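Checklist before submission:
- one chain only
- standard amino acids only
- sequence pasted in full

Submission:
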Amino acid sequence: MKAASESSVDFAALYDTHPEYAARRRAASFEQQQVELEVRHFKLPQLVALLQGRRLSSVLEIGCATGELIASFPLLGGDGSERVPSQAARWGLDISPNNVAAARERFPEVQFLAGDFRQIILPNFDAVVLSDVLEHVPDDVAFLADAARLASCVLLNLPLEDNWLNRHRAYGPDDVSGHLRAYSLAQGLDLVARAGLVPQRWHRVWAHETPLEGLRRSMRAQHLGQAYAGGPLGRRVRQALSGAATSVRPLGRALFASNLFVLATPA
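Returned file contents:
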């Protein structure tokens, strides 16, 4: 989809009504539990590993959706130990008022705001977190550069979907997850540089190579009665692909998307 048409989209309304996010807002839904699993066993460990004991007294997450990540994010002392935060230490901000309302109800210990962060007066933070956000915004470079001004460092999680199974995906606001574009590793690192940031540490991770994938399948089997989605043929194909990806690492890395995790600071 062209940038001109993206600029006319009401993104607050889009994510207020988007089926994926509406499902996440339902208490104890399968989608909500799936997000919590991803946060606990994938996103949070990868982001915290970048810190290497860096002291964080306050953290802002932009694009926090329903709040699971920022509510779980540890605040670290100078020795790397986790400490109990004050209520004002964790902030979450999202464009969707419905997402923010759900997050406030579930996580009252976090300060949540709804709106565009560029139109809100905010304090400075030790870190700003952008997890699965930049692929949703029309001007990713400007968005990242503006967010970086709010903190001493940026923690970024960017999906890299330049892979075989996403080759013919129709990106744009009507995408099943609202992704406007796909990134390669080179494009992800270039995005960080063009935003005026310097990566201090980064790593690339394929979720299917971590415990998350097995946990996802177990949850699907428990809640939906089958470990793989689709009809009988589709399930057999997905199971075969999963086995091949695990057995032949280069094949799995070509087939499936990965994630780029970056700790960056202003140049």
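Reviewer check: The chain has a mean pLDDT of 92.
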